[in-house]
Amino acid sequence: VGLSCPSEILHVSQRTNDHTAEVPRLISTTERKPGDNVTFSCQSSNDHRFSQWYKQSPGKMIQTMATGVYGKMTATKTFSNTRFQFRRENNEMSLTIHSVKKEDEAVYFCQSGTEFLLTFHNGFLLVVKDCNQQTSVYVEQTPDAAAVQPGDTASLQCSLFSAKSETRPRCPGENFVHWFKSGSGSSYPSIIYTARNSTDNATKRSCVYHLSKTVEDASDFGTYYCAVAICGEILLGGGSKLETSMYLHSVLNFVLVLGGLLGCCVIVIIGLIFYITGRRVSDSAEGWHSIFYQHY
C-alpha cells in the first residue's frame, strides 16, 4: 500500500503535465437577441464522475452554475430557476438558457473529470445583441487629408465613439466594418477592404479600426470612407482624402504668389496716399504764398 501511493500521485502528475502542455482551445462565439434560447454542449468521458458548469461575466469573478455526480446535475442557488437547464446523458453535458437576457452575456465553461483530475472541455462566449440598450454612437475619421506621393504608405483611422462619454460602444466585428474609396476617375464608390486591424480603446472608450494604404499610382488618390454596420444601421465616416503632394505644392505656390501681389498692391496704395497728401500740402503752401505777395 505504501508503494502504490507515490506511483498513483506520479501518474496524476503526468496527466496534469500532459494536459497543461496541450494547445488551448478557442472559445466559440454565439450571438443571440433578447428572448431567444441557446444551448451549449460538451463531450466528456463516460468515466468522468464529476461535472460542472461555470459562468464568467465581463469584469467579474467566475461563478459556479451547477455541479453534478454522474447523471444528476444540481444548480446553485443563483441559477436555480426555470431559465437554466443542466443535463448530462452518457458522455454529453449541456446547458440551455431560455429567454436570453442582456445579463446572460458572458463566457460559459464546461468541466468534468475524476477525483484526481478535472478538465475544462469547451468555452462559449454568449453575445446578446440588444440594440435598445445600445447608446447613440458616431464615427470619426482621421486624418481629414494627407499629402502623399506614389510609394508612400498612408495610415487611416476610423473610430466609433459613444455619445455619452461615460459609456463605451459595443464594438462590432471586423465583418461589419468596411472601407470605400471614391474619386480618381471612378464613377461610383468601390469597396476595397474589410477592417483588418481593430483595437478596443478602453481609455478613450472607443472602437478603433485601421487601414494602411500604400499609394502605387494616381488611381489610389481619392477620398476613403469607413462604414460601420451596427444594430441595423450603417454609419459613414467623414472621409480621409489622399492627394498628391505636388498638387499641394502648386496650391501653396499659388497662395504665395497671390500674397506677394497683395503685398505689392498695399505698397503701391500707401505710396499713392503719401503722394496725394504731399501734393495737397504743396498746393496749399503755394496758395498762401500768392495771397501774401498780393497783399503787400
TrEMBL record:
Glycoprotein keyword on record: yes
GO biological process terms, semicolon-separated: immune system process; response to bacterium
Cellular component terms (Gene Ontology): plasma membrane
UniProt cross-references to InterPro entries, sorted A to Z: Ig-like_dom, Ig-like_dom_sf, Ig-like_fold, Ig_sub, Ig_V-set, TCR_complex_component
Bilayer-crossing regions: 251-276
Every Ig-like domain range: 24-111, 135-228
Main location: membrane
Domain of life the protein comes from: Eukaryota
Keyword presence, Cell wall biogenesis/degradation: no
Localisation: Cell membrane
Entry-linked SMART domains: IG, IGv
Keyword annotations of the record: Cell membrane, Disulfide bond, Glycoprotein, Immunity, Membrane, Signal, Transmembrane, Transmembrane helix
Listed SUPFAM superfamilies: Immunoglobulin (SSF48726)
Name of the molecule in the record: Ig-like domain-containing protein
Source taxonomy: Eukaryota, Metazoa, Chordata, Craniata, Vertebrata
